[in-house]
Amino acid sequence: MNRLAEAVRSFALTRWVARKSRADFERWQAGALRRFLDRDLPRAPFYGKAPACLTDLTVTDKALLMARFDEFNIHGLTAAQAWAALAHDGRAGALTVGASTGTSGNRGLFVISEPEKYRWLGTILAKAAPDLVWRGMRVAVILPQNTGLYDSARKSRLIKLAFFDLTAGPESWRGELEAFDPTVIIAPPKMLRHFAAEDFRLRPKRVFSAAETLDPVDRPVIEAFFRLPLDQIYMATEGLFAVTCRQGGLHLAEDSVFFEFEPAGEGLVTPLMTAFRRRTQIMARYRMNDLLRLSKEPCRCGSPLRCVDEIVGRMDDAFRFTSLDGPILVTPDVLRNAVLKADRRIDDFRLVQTGPESIEFGLPPTLPDDAAVAAHQAVRALLEMRKAAATVTLVRAPLPLEPGRKLRRVECRLEPAR
Ligand SMILES: [Zn+2]
């Protein structure tokens, strides 16, 4: 098997699909989905046979996939074997094993084949930087190293890839990164912001935020430092999810995933995804934890792929309260907006639900007192308006960079409600 050919074919397919009309695209997607249901999905023991239509299949989630891991991949690889492979070098025979960076005990495993790896790479490049590929590009990827996908491109001639381990901390590879002089940087927003704060010597042509939800407070800081618009690559255990186009539209990866949407209140939806180009680990009608706001308008770039206005965070991080009228859910975006609107000088904070009726609100000591008081008041007013009984404790302390942990400014530390 020619690996590069796999990447090139995927690159070409991704570009070709992006030029279709929405109607033509939907026809192509329906055909690809049908082939997946007939040919690929039945090979996973959990399914065994092709459904009459997609919606006949049961909805899956991370808990089910992890509990019956071996039944969802076509090689019968067990979760125990996959964890063992991951602890070693991430290889299980010809397969690559990876895991998401979630909180401990909540990590998702995935397994992919070599052709899938290269297909993934071709797709990423076609979406992220098609114009740069042919001019030779140096891509710096700064992500946790346990996501085995990223080994693929190191050897290719058109692209030089360098990987920097997020968990090792930037001080250990700063010199190396600056010497590499990347034209494309892919990193979590907190790390991009750290580059700005520490004035790293970098001059990329394109910068992508990845692996964490991009919080609007980080965008202006990062864009001002690099003097570039900040783009997004949104990935999860489940694969590639959305990528920003050159016009700034955040397009869902509908060319490899069929999305269904469940309403989550306040104009938000949570997606069910069916990854119709994956053949090793079958993911069908997989319920994700993310809260999205879908765009109503098509993007100016002309791509038929649907856009998302905002990925507002994770359902897990919505604050949950009880009241006389029943349960109350306050989503991360609402909480975040309340804080940021209170005072324009606020550009960082932490809001954590620590108990059924208690919230800790962290603000850095460098923020003037009147801004902190205004923000504290704004959060209390929001909860009062929603009739949620909770105490908000203000904590003035530095907010340190935690390279090994996903940054969530709004975080719920209650046990999940199911
Ligand atoms: Zn677009």
Q: What labels would you give this structure?
A:
418 residues, alpha/beta, 9-stranded mixed β-sheet, 4-stranded mixed β-sheet, 12 helices, 21 strands, 30% helix, 27% strand, globular, binds zinc ion
Q: How would you characterize this protein structure?
A:
The chain has 418 residues and is of the alpha/beta class. Helix content is 30%, strand content 27%. It has twelve helices and 21 strands. It has helices at residues 3-17, 22-40, 62-67, 69-72, 79-88, 114-128, 130-133, 174-180, 189-197, 218-226, 332-342, 369-385, and strands spanning 91-92, 95-99, 109-112, 137-143, 159-165, 184-187, 206-210, 230-236, 239-244, 250-252, 257-265, 268-275, 286-287, 290-294, 307-314, 319-323, 326-330, 350-355, 358-363, 391-396, 410-412. It has a nine-stranded mixed sheet. It has a four-stranded mixed sheet with strand order 20-19-18-21, with helices on one face. Strand 11 (257-265) and strand 12 (268-275) form a beta hairpin. Helix 9 (189-197) packs across helix 10 (218-226). The longest helix is centred in the N-terminal third of the chain and has 19 residues, at 22-40. The N and C termini lie far apart (45 Å). The model has no long low-confidence stretch (mean pLDDT 86). Bound molecules: zinc ion.
In short:
Helices cover 30% and strands 27% of the residues.
- Given the C-alpha coordinates, what overall shape results? globular
Strand count: 21
Stretches with pLDDT under 50, minimum 5 residues: none
Helix content: 25-40%
- Distance linking N and C termini: 45 Å
Output the strand order for the largest sheet: 5-4-6-7-8-9-10-15-14
Query: In this structure, how is the largest beta sheet organized?
Result: 9 strands, mixed
Count of alpha/pi helices = 12
Rg from Cα? 22 Å
Q: Which small-molecule species are bound to the chains here?
A: zinc ion
Oligomer: single chain
